[in-house]
């Protein structure tokens, strides 16, 4: 049995992880920590791996404390930047423990991004539309941002010509936000959860790649896969692509 501690266990994602661990035949949730539980060995009950779904302001400190306590760490909390990632990379090397940080654990979203990057060099035009519930405070979504960046890098590596677009007047920003030259559009609509569509166009043909997450249980197969894989992935791994063998 893999002994797992959940950090942020009473939160929306953390409590879903606790339920997923209870249903997994090879894992056991041995510790549940929240903001008022210090990350110290007496509260970690011999766990070998921790899963952190907390807050952007808390997560880096948690990861350092967990590495120092000798645990591998799977992180779903968002808000990481290059400098916080490099500090964790260094600490993981020093402690000999492993960290997986994935901004999106939904298998369908990870595959959609991967397929979009594979397809991007073969199409003249590519645009990303992300659609979410109206309570989401940031736009575009982190996943749409990452998707557009992957498309831009794939097109750059293939030396694609700029996308055709004759627009000269757009006072309302109706053409969307440009992420490294790739237009990204955000829809906020009551009834939606988390969705993304990537449109790729050539003369006479279109490829649409779409991912729909209807519930936060959609993240759990990715989280459990990361927990099962972390022992064999030394240091810091960012994103689920490596875990899924896509790179
Ligand atoms: P949430 O419901 O607000 O839960 C956050 C939890 O973290 C709460 O239980 C809170 O405890 C706890 N917490 C806060 N500070 C802490 C600390 N210093 N140490 C330990 N626990 C602490 O948030 P959520 O909706 O579950 O989302 C959590 C994070 O996951 C967000 O960053 C969100 O963007 C991200 N997320 C990622 C994915 C993905 O696929 N990677 C998917 C969905 C969400 P108290 O209640 O005691 O304050």
From TrEMBL:
GO biological process terms held by the UniProt record:
diaminopimelate biosynthetic process; lysine biosynthetic process via diaminopimelate
Q: Which GO terms describe its cellular component?
A: cytosol
Where does this protein hold NAD(+)?
Answer: 8-13, 36, 76-78, 102-105
The EC number(s) attached to this protein equal 1.17.1.8
Reactions catalysed, semicolon-separated, are:
(S)-2,3,4,5-tetrahydrodipicolinate + NADP(+) + H2O = (2S,4S)-4-hydroxy-2,3,4,5-tetrahydrodipicolinate + NADPH + H(+); (S)-2,3,4,5-tetrahydrodipicolinate + NAD(+) + H2O = (2S,4S)-4-hydroxy-2,3,4,5-tetrahydrodipicolinate + NADH + H(+)
Keywords recorded for this protein, A-Z: Amino-acid biosynthesis, Cytoplasm, Diaminopimelate biosynthesis, Lysine biosynthesis, NAD, NADP, Oxidoreductase
Chain ranges of the Dihydrodipicolinate reductase C-terminal domain = 109-243
EC category:
oxidoreductase
Where are its TM segments located? Answer: none
Q: Where do the catalytic residues lie? A: 132, 136
Q: Name one GO molecular function term.
A: 4-hydroxy-tetrahydrodipicolinate reductase
Q: Where in the cell is it found?
A: Cytoplasm
Query: Matching PANTHER family, A to Z?
Result: 4-HYDROXY-TETRAHYDRODIPICOLINATE REDUCTASE 1, CHLOROPLASTIC-RELATED (PTHR20836:SF0), DIHYDRODIPICOLINATE REDUCTASE (PTHR20836)
Q: What does this protein do?
A: Catalyzes the conversion of 4-hydroxy-tetrahydrodipicolinate (HTPA) to tetrahydrodipicolinate.
Q: Which family does it belong to?
A: Belongs to the DapB family.
Q: What name goes with this protein?
A: 4-hydroxy-tetrahydrodipicolinate reductase
Q: Which organism is it from?
A: Schaalia canis
Q: What is the lineage of its organism?
A: Bacteria, Bacillati, Actinomycetota, Actinomycetes, Actinomycetales
Q: Which gene encodes it?
A: dapB
């Amino acid at each position: 049995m893999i002994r797992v501690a959940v950090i942020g266990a009473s939160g929306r994602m953390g409590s879903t992880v606790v339920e997923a661990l209870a249903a997994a035949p090879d894992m056991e949730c041995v510790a549940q920590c929240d903001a008022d539980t210090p990350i110290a060995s007496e509260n970690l009950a011999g766990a070998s791996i921790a899963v952190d779904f907390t807050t952007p302001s808390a997560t880096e400190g948690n990861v350092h404390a967990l590495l120092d306590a000798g645990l591998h760490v799977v992180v779903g909390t968002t808000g990481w930047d290059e400098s916080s990632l490099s500090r964790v990379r260094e600490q993981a090397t020093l402690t000999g423990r492993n960290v997986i940080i994935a901004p999106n654990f939904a298998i369908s979203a990870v595959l959609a991004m991967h397929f979009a990057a594979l397809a991007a060099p073969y199409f003249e035009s590519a645009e990303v539309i992300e659609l979410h519930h109206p309570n989401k405070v940031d736009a575009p979504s982190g996943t749409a941002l990452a998707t557009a960046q992957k498309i831009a890098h794939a097109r750059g590596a293939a030396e694609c010509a700029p996308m055709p677009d004759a627009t000269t007047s757009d006072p309302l920003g109706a053409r969307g936000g440009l992420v490294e030259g790739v237009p990204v559009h955000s829809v906020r609509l009551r009834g939606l959860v988390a969705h993304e569509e990537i449109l790729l166009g050539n003369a006479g043909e279109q490829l649409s790649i779409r991912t729909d997450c209807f519930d936060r249980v959609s993240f759990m197969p990715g989280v459990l896969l990361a927990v099962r894989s972390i022992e064999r992935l030394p240091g810091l791994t960012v994103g689920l692509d490596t875990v899924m063998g896509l790179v």
